[in-house]
């Protein structure tokens, strides 16, 4: 019948009498849809068959359904109208048979749905088929759609004047209670999901989603179900584009079923199958970037890490990158495919990098590089050393290609916030372990790769904790372990950097104690450095660690370079590097850090001539950290295999306490500091302050990491503080004076002939054998002290206060630390050493 009518009817002329705005386009007629209000034409009619479809509202059918819906004709009236137009007499036609009705009972049976639930949604039977009412959130009727059959023929038609809207708006209350919504195509998948108490909303047609509908999803996590056909791609693209245009800010996920076409198909497989596979699908749903999904960039290589939009005049494939030359002829610019996959924005400097990937031997490789490098002919060739297929030969074309690719994907490239250091990221995030979505830009620290990879977890946490119980029993090792936990607390307490230097004879377990301390954060063998390093190198390491402890082993590697060590102590403890020029011009960003430095060696860190600042910045602990060689060997073995757990756990609790009370740690530290200062007023303030930090760090670590009681932790903290004080010199000032006196004795002994009457060189003074006293020429002695790095005024004043030298009043309450002596028939001022020098 249809074929006969097609031969007799000019469908272009037939439809034009009802829709005068139609325009031919190929083998179709195009125009505005008569079944809903629209501004952009989406209605198409096949000129050969008269079949129509609207890509926007989903209306479809043929001439019969068109007349029934648009002109409200019955089936018989529509048939007569078409026959008349075709010139066929009614008697010769066979149009008396009515189209069989499609009922709710048939639908419920085929879809295995509860008919009473379907009826509660307003679904009912009519002479045209099953009625599907579309209502708003308040239950007001917005549109009506008929379903005429399950398959074949026109399955759906809209009642004239219907306002196309999502299906199931009146059920949104359930979605708002549960916090998420499943977006599907059509009504039947909604009915199926509602059957399982899953909130869902239906879009009537793959291409019908409108941006204003996104307002219904605010505050919800949105799961978009993608059907396997091409219509599924169109559906995802259309919905994402609408969400993007409406500035939707919620999370969107892509939902797939592995072995079934749609939720309805899965439901027909059985209740148990549905429950299991649906839960798996939700768990495997991938976050969707609606900016990218709305563009539907074409994937070229199956395993590519990102699918960028292809820039105009360029293309890439598994065989390379191709561009058009000046004559428009395609030429290959790279033997390997190259794409931009990611944008990285440094949260500290707000500078940007791009991640560029290329595929070699079936595997994608990548590098993160600054735009200034990628977009300059003279610099991009430097990336050849990384394996990127670029050289001076194709540098210009590669720059143009990458520039155009970034421009084409400016709005769609995944953006990752990154940092180039560990430790604190703002006030509420920390690396390692608690950085959220912030990534570590390892390419920014290519010289630190060995160190970076050391900050990881390995082995059994319980084995590590058990081993550390022995470490904690030994005061020096206990202080080093506490220093590791204390390092990230310095910034939030507002404490300056300090050094814990453990020194003494070899085979004292110093390196084992160091490894125990560093194993809090990672693999100690990889994150430990040595004194065989430059000042610049250690500064850069400190900058990278930021707030994590720096472990420097083997002080003896620095040899007798005391001036180098002193500068190193000042530089590291200062917390900032020097301002240095950048090789590309301008100045490098200044480096900052706030951490505890752990050092070991067989010699003291401070030398005889070191300024007091060196000693106040370092807790010099002389002794044996781990006296039992067998247990020290066990610490070596355990920390080689088990590490990196404790620091992450410790910082989890630190962050929780900060969220509860931002001044919590500073208050606790201040309280302990005051108690220690009252108990030991003679100890230098920097040392008391450092011991206070170590004490509270140990107190919290023992509770949070080992799980001991607060009372036990407090007892341990007190014992550790007492042990720390005992290990320090009883008086920082005495230490300085003693070193200055020992230096003076050594200087006189090495120049003994300069203090004799028959000296034929410049005399430095005179030795009074009767009184057993040395008289020193002030100008010479002061010069010697200055060249040795001592403060002349401080040394002389403290010598006098301890009774080592004589002094006289200079008037006005001042003292002069010399006396008048008769020497070589002249009265001159001399510094007289009253204390007997022990000179062999």
From TrEMBL:
Keywords: Metal-binding, Zinc, Zinc-finger. GO terms for biological process: DNA replication, synthesis of primer. InterPro entries: Cch_HTH, DNA_primase_Znf_CHC2, DnaG_primase, DUF927, Znf_CHC2. Pfam families: DUF927, HTH_56, Zn_ribbon_DnaG. One of its GO terms (molecular function) is zinc ion binding. Residues 29-83 form the Zinc finger CHC2-type domain. It comes from the Bacteria. GO terms for cellular component: cytoplasm. This is Uncharcterized protein, DUF927 family. It comes from Dendrosporobacter quercicolus. The lineage of its organism: Bacteria, Bacillati, Bacillota, Negativicutes, Selenomonadales.
């Amino acid at each position: 019948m249809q074929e006969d009518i097609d031969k007799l009817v000019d469908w272009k002329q037939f439809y034009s009498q009802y829709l005068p705005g139609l325009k031919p386009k190929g083998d179709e007629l195009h125009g505005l849809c008569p079944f809903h209000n629209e501004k952009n034409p989406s209605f198409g009619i096949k000129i050969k068959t008269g079949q129509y479809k609207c890509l926007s509202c989903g209306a479809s059918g043929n001439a019969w359904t068109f007349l029934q819906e648009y002109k409200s004709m019955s089936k018989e009236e529509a048939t007569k109208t078409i026959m008349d137009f075709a010139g066929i007499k009614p008697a010769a036609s066979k149009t008396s048979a009515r189209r069989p009705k499609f009922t709710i009972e048939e639908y419920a049976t085929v879809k295995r749905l509860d008919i009473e639930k379907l009826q509660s949604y307003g679904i009912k039977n009519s002479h045209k088929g099953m009625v599907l009412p579309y209502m708003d959130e308040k239950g007001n009727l917005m549109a009506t759609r008929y379903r005429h059959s399950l398959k074949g023929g026109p399955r759906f038609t809209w009642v004239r004047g219907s306002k196309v809207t999502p299906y199931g708006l009146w059920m949104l209350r359930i979605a708002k209670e549960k916090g998420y919504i499943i977006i599907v195509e059509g009504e039947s998948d909604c009915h199926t999901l509602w059957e399982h108490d899953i909130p869902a909303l239906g879009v009537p047609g793959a291409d019908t989603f409108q941006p204003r509908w996104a307002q219904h999803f605010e505050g919800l996590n949105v799961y978009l179900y993608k059907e396997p056909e091409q219509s599924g791609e169109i559906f995802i693209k259309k919905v994402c584009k609408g969400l993007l245009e409406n500035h939707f800010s919620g999370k969107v996920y892509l939902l797939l079923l592995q072995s079934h076409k749609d939720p309805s198909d899965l439901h027909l497989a059985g209740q148990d199958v549905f429950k299991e596979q649906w839960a798996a699908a939700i768990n495997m749903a991938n976050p969707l970037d609606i900016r990218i999904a709305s563009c539907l960039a074409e994937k070229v290589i199956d395993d590519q890490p990102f699918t960028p939009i292809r820039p105009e005049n360029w293309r890439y494939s598994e065989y390379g990158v191709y561009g058009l030359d000046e004559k428009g002829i395609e030429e290959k610019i790279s033997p390997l495919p190259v794409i931009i996959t990611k944008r990285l924005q440094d949260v500290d400097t707000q500078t940007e990098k791009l991640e560029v990937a290329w595929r070699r031997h079936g595997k994608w490789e990548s590098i993160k590089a600054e735009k200034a490098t990628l977009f300059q002919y003279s610099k991009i060739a430097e990336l050849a050393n990384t394996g990127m297929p670029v050289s001076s030969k194709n540098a210009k074309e590669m720059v143009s290609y990458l520039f155009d690719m970034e421009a084409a994907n400016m709005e769609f490239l995944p953006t990752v916030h990154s940092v180039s250091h560990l430790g604190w990221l703002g006030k509420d995030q920390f690396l390692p372990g608690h950085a959220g979505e912030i990534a570590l830009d390892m390419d920014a620290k290519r010289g630190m790769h060995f160190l970076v990879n050391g900050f990881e977890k390995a082995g059994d946490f319980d084995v590590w904790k058990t081993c550390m119980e022995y470490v904690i029993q030994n005061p020096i090792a206990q202080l080093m372990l506490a220093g590791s936990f204390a390092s990230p607390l310095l910034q939030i307490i507002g404490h300056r950097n300090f050094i814990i230097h453990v020194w003494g004879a070899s085979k004292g377990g110093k390196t084992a104690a160091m490894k125990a301390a560093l194993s809090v954060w990672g693999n100690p063998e990889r994150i430990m450095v040595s004194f065989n390093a430059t000042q610049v190198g250690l500064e850069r390491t400190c900058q990278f660690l930021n707030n994590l402890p720096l472990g420097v082993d083997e002080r003896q590697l620095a040899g007798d370079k005391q001036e180098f060590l002193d500068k190193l102590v000042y530089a590291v403890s200062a917390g900032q590097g020097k301002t240095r020029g950048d090789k590309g011009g301008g100045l490098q960003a200044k480096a900052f850090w706030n951490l505890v430095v752990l050092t070991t060696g067989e010699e003291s860190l401070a030398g005889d001539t070191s300024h007091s600042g060196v000693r106040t910045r370092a807790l010099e602990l002389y002794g044996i950290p781990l006296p039992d060689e067998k247990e020290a060997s066990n610490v070596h073995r355990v920390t080689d295999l088990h590490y990196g757990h404790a620091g992450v756990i410790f910082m989890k609790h630190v962050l929780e306490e900060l969220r509860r009370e931002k001044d919590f740690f500073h208050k606790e530290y201040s309280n302990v500091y005051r108690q220690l200062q009252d108990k030991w007023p003679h100890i230098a303030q920097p040392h008391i302050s450092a011991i206070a930090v170590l004490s509270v760090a140990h107190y919290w670590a023992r509770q949070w990491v080992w799980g001991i009681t607060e009372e036990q932790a407090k007892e341990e903290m007190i014992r550790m503080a007492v042990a720390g004080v005992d290990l320090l010199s009883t008086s920082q000032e005495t230490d300085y004076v003693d070193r200055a006196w020992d230096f003076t004795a050594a200087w006189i002994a090495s120049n003994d002939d300069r203090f004799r009457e028959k000296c034929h060189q410049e005399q430095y003074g005179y030795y009074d054998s009767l009184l057993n006293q040395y008289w020193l020429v002030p100008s010479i002695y002061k010069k010697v002290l200055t060249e040795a790095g001592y403060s002349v005024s401080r040394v002389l004043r403290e010598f006098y206060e301890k009774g080592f030298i004589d002094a006289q009043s200079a008037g006005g309450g001042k003292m002069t630390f010399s006396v008048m002596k008769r020497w070589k028939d002249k009265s001159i001022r001399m510094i007289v050493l009253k204390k007997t020098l022990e000179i062999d």
